[in-house]
Amino acid sequence: MKSKRWTTSNRVRMSVLSSSLSLTTSTASISQIRRARLVREKQQEEARANTRSMRARLAEACMEIGDTDDLDCGSNGGLDYSDGDRGTIGLPPLDEDNDDELDDELDDAHPVYSKYFQPFMHSQPRSHRRHDTRPRAQRNRHAHQAWQAQLPTLVDRYLAWKHNGPEELAGDHVFHVDVIGVFQYERHVNVIQKADESANAALLRVGLLGCSPSQPRIAIRLECLELYHQIRRRQLSFSLQAMMKVLCALQNITYSHHLRAQLSAAFDVYLNILRSVHTLLKQALGRDGPAWKLRGACPACAFEQPDEPPLSPARLHSMDGNQSAKRLDGSGSADSRLFHSDYFIPHTEVERFKDEVRDRPGEAAREKRFTTCTDNWTAAKAIEENQIQVFEQTGIFVMACRHGFVECIAEMKRSGELAKYGLAAVSRLLDVCGEDQAVGHDVGCASKKTIASSSLGNEVQEKRLKVVVNAFHGFAHNRLCQLENHPLYQVGFGNEDLETCEHIFSSSNNMAPLIRHASEFHWKQFLDLHFSQWDSDKYLELSRFLYNNYKQALYIIQTHLAELERFKRSKDITDDDFESWHREELEYLKRCAGESDATSIATQYVELLEKLNFAEATYGSVTQVPYLTYTPAEFTSTAGLNESARQGTNAINAEYASALRKYQLQLNVVANFERQHNITDRWTPLHREYINAREYTKHRAFIRAVEELEGLVVQRMFELSKANLAKTGYKMRKHISKAISRRSAAIRAALERYNKLAPRQRPPRPKLDYAEVIGYSLLGEFSLLKHSHYEILEKPWALPDNREMMMKYYKLQRSQEEITRLNVEIRRLQAWLDFDGERMKVAAQGFRDSGSSELAFEMESMYAERVRVNDFHRAQLQKIYEMPGYTGCRPIGYQPRVTGDGTGDEYEEDDSDDDDGEAFRLGDTLDRVPQY
Predict the structure, then answer these.
(1) At what angle do helices 853-881 and 257-285 cross, to 10 degrees?
(2) Among residues 742, 757, 817, 748, which one has the least CA distance to residue 787?
(3) Which DSSP state fits 823?
(4) Which stretch, 103-112, 690-699, 767-776, 809-818, has highest mean pLDDT?
(5) Listed residue (240, 247, 244, 146) closest to 200, CA to CA
(6) Which tops the pLDDT comparison, 103 or 236?
(7) Spatial separation of the C-alpha atoms in residues 602 and 608, rounded to whole Å
């Protein structure tokens, strides 16, 4: 028997799981595994030797250039070639709060000494860096809570530094940070910290702000943050990344994404500090809260004076939507912060009106024929079928006063310009401003009906809100809409074009690329920052606005008044004739737009009666055959009538049943129509109403085709005169041209319908050529109008000379109204200049009495800024007072402020790019730069 022996195999089966999660199975001998291990250990030893060699060469290179500050000597006297806390030479240290987020950025960084340092950086582990396992959203939330907890202290430290300068003192603890300034990057700056204060409070005492709330390793000088703050307010497209790259270039350090993240974190905190300070100041002045934007932000609109003449409308506003300020859904999802702004209407307030249009489809359908001018406008489509779901915010809806001050904003979410945004803005307007307000909208004709049919309808009627179309947008509407809704024909609107929102959007559009991928917090924060600067600019330009409008109104009055007087004497007409011409044109276009209800009812009734007569005659013709006659050949010996005879009998019975059914159905239709319209006696062909309606019915299709074509051609001719308006920009001219092109397409379709019906008339009417019709420029050239239902050529308002003078008459009326409104607004601004300064002085004294000396200094700084701007307003108002033709009040004993050489010429330059009061803080802080 063979003995059992134990054996050991010299081969091993191995399964290896790769980084891509693929399982590889192989078989190798023990000797092969041993050899592979020896090769791997040899490679590691060579790598360590190379690392030591490169450390030595790096140290030698540092000593050659004289940079020995970072060379640490160990206890044995040797050099420690590591870079200490810095993972990459040439990059500032990372804040501990953001270490985990920046691992990937450091892996891709390009250090200064990359030739020697790159292998070491990738071969050695970063043992000094802590791996944070918390989700990014949780880390951001904790950081925000930490910042908010120390915000009151930071505000106090900021005010103390700004007005008292850096504070030097001895403390219990010293820590060091790397400091980024405008022109210098300083490493290992010592900061003294008290026992009872946070690190950032200690930093603010010396004019620095850390980039993390708890353990900042990088700090940024407040002058640097203020510089970017002022740049960003005036140049919307200048991003944080661009600013950080500029600083890196000035300081000769390598740019990395984590540096931009540090600047972003510090800038958010800095803006929060500034907002907190401004909130305290506004509360002391009584100018805080969302209602202030409507109640008092514009002194020319809201600072009413006793015994001033009443204005109707009391104030003029403009509202419109813009879809450039989009934000992608999901952008910045890890940032859960909420930004509260006095500009924005809360989303819950907007959603109150989300079903206002859906609940009234019948009313919208009944008004459809009167709002055809808005069919091509995106804003007029209350409910969009294809909404862009990729965006969370699809734009903003803005309301502003006629002087340009932004009054409220609604963020448009996952939709176009829906009716609910306009309704929310109008609701806030009515709540704050009250009665007799006027609003201009590019689709005011549709908005007016939407508002009237909404839940605000009764309040709008009680408070006499007027909704019109904007001046230049109105020229793209049809002529009927212009006569009803254009500001030129609205009493009390002056020369205001109500296109303020277009100017606002032309500026805010520059910010769109930077906020497209931002978080919701940053999206709203930068919009708030921009509109705050916009309002400051509008306040600076307010007196110039009044001066230019007064000058324009006086020029129109001077040129048009004499010309109109000569024309009225030559034509023996009065101002009442111009008004009557306007009413006649409006009535004419309304008749062309649709027939009267009485005519429509009579026509429908006659058509139903004729259908009833036809059904009765058909039924009578079927029942007039009392007997059926058959021949013997049609019978069979067993089945009676043959198949063909039976089919004939069934057909006659079916025809009889069908005629009876149609007759009964039509009889019921006529009876129901008579009950609905209270017709007691059925009309017969001998009734006069029946005869007139039947004659109209014969030519109804042709008459409607002629009237439709006539109205379109007349509207196109009138709109052609608007395409070349003086001072009309290229974009607006192109927009008007597109509207005229759409009108031309409608004319072609109407002309085809006319040419089909013209030969059928008695006598036959001539066909018309499209090229001939589209080239008409005068009403006298329209030979087709001679066949119209209305005699337009006999109307005086149709003559070109009369039309031109009628337009000048209305411009003259609006200019005189503009003078009246400007006189009131100039008096309000003059009173505001005195009130504003005194109010700030009282608030500063109140802060000083309460022991808040820093806030008193801040209020005095605001007062100094406002004095400079108000002095500019006083100089502009003085120019208005001295203007020939000025009819308003002049202040008693007013003396203009004399500066410079005593002439005041520094205020004469008409420069629209003047800086506002915020530039004061920029100059003040930049003066501190050389001392660091």
Answers:
(1) 80
(2) 757
(3) H
(4) 809-818
(5) 146
(6) 236
(7) 10
> What's residue 2's pLDDT?
46
Helix residue ranges per DSSP H, 100-166: 103-107, 114-123, 136-149, 151-164
Q: What is the mean pLDDT of the chain?
A: 78
- Segment 261-319, tens digit of pLDDT: 999 999 999 999 999 999 999 999 999 988 999 999 999 999 999 989 999 999 999 99
- Helix axis angle, 30-64 to 114-123, nearest 10°: 140
Residue 644 per-residue DSSP state: H
Q: What is the mean pLDDT of residues 155-168?
A: 88
Residue 645: pLDDT band by 50, 70, 90 thresholds? low
The residue behind tokens 């649709």 is 594
CA distance 613 to 617: 6
Question: Which stretch, 107-121, 144-158, 464-478, 653-667, has highest mean pLDDT?
Answer: 144-158
- pLDDT value for 857: 94
Element (H, E) at 321: strand 315-322
Token pair in block for residue 305: 């004076």
535: nearest Cα among 318, 341, 313, 343: 343
Please provide the distance, in angstroms rounded to a whole number, between the alpha carbons at the two ends of the chain.
Answer: 98
Report whether 33 contacts 12 (CB < 8 A).
Answer: yes
Q: What is the pLDDT of residue 400?
A: 96
* Winning range, highest mean pLDDT, from 107-111, 661-665, 763-767: 661-665
Q: Which segments of 624-687 does DSSP mark as H helices, in order?
A: 643-676
User: Can you give the pLDDT at residue 475?
Assistant: 67
Q: Are 125 and 132 in contact (CB under 8 A)?
A: no
Output the six-digit token pair for 88. Answer: 């990459």
pLDDT in tens, 678-717: 888 888 888 888 887 877 776 666 766 766 776 677 666 5
State yes or no: pLDDT of 61 exceeds 50.
yes
CA distance 101 to 747: 64
DSSP 859-927: HHHHHHHHHHHHHHHHHHHHHHHTSTT--S---TT--PPP-TTTT-GGGT---TT---TTHHHHHHHHT
Helix (H) or strand (E) holding 12, with range, is strand 11-17
Provide the strand spans (E) within 166-229: 173-180, 185-193, 208-210, 218-221
CA distance 751 to 770: 7
Q: Are 609 and 690 in contact (CB under 8 A)?
A: yes
Contacts of 838-844 spanning 24+ positions with Cβ under 8 A? 839/285, 840/285, 840/866, 843/281, 843/284, 843/285
Q: Is the pLDDT of residue 432 over 90?
A: yes
> Where does residue 832 rank: exposed (0-12), middle (13-18), buried (19+ CB within 10 A)?
buried
Contact call for residues 143 and 213 (beta carbons, < 8 A): yes
For residue 932, the cross-strand partners are: none
Task: Give the closest residue to 814 by CA, choosing from 263, 316, 445, 479.
Answer: 316
How many whole angstroms separate alpha carbon 854 and alpha carbon 916?
23
Q: Name the E strands within 18-78.
A: 23-29, 72-73
All residues at 6 or more sequence positions from 176 whose CB lies less than 8 Å from its CB, including other chains = 188, 189, 190, 191
The Cα–Cα gap between 791 and 785 comes to 7
Distance, CA of 539 to CA of 854 (rounded, Å): 26
DSSP-derived letter for residue 634 is G
Taken in order 190, 193, 198, 202, the sign of the CA dihedral is: negative
CA–CA distance, 152 with 198 (Å, rounded to integer):
12
Bridge-based pairing of strands 185-193 and 466-469 is unpaired
pTM of the model as a whole: 0.70
How far apart are alpha carbons 503 and 404 in whole angstroms?
Answer: 8
Written as six digits, the tokens of 361 are 């489809």
Q: Is the pLDDT of residue 911 over 90?
A: no
Q: How many CB atoms lie within 10 A of CB 835?
A: 12
- Residue range 364-392: average pLDDT? 52
The pLDDT, as a whole number, for residue 784 is 43
